[in-house]
């Protein structure tokens, strides 16, 4: 393989990519009309680690008796570029799932970024986030830890381990080391308390389980549990299994997505 030489100015060469491919520009690529149902919340998403955070959160709220947490969820085919349609970009100018609309407010509230959505819902209903300053701060510490650390697992380790055209030692070593450091951090933390932020289940657990719990259970990248020697993180495994057994988590994973192409009355 020829050695890569850095150009003086980088230029994008994938001029023939379809509308679903990444590009160095933002914004809508085509006109789009998203369906809007009757539920208070309209969720446009996909069952990725970031996407399931929101369906799990909404199902947890419903399990807690929050009637106003009803939602309609529509499938956004990111492989087909649905996230670059004009209506979706109006909700999330960053063109990433999940995107949530709270239409119980007038005017409606558009929320994007999974961490922001979890925090919005927790604060709106005063659920799954402690009221005291110490518990709230610790919960937010770990929520933002996941948002900042997760890309090393997904875009870093996951990409080069599972999706890159060919194995490359340098990036795999780099991101495997960082992923294992994060797993060890969680394992050490969960040796001291039952949930990530303390004694109670919070939005921090939802955010972190969706990535790291699924990784620990072998549900993210085929063969990664053996490659990462997940079995050495016994506290993380126990927590992951316990969260996975929650009825609302199961419902959040099994939710049926509506098509964004369906007509609504």
From TrEMBL:
Q: What Pfam family does this protein match (any one)?
A: GST_N
- Give all residue intervals belonging to the GST N-terminal domain: 39-129
Q: What residue stretches are annotated with the GST C-terminal domain? A: 132-265
Which NCBIfam families does the record match to this protein? PRK11752.1
Give the protein's recorded name: Glutathione-dependent disulfide-bond oxidoreductase
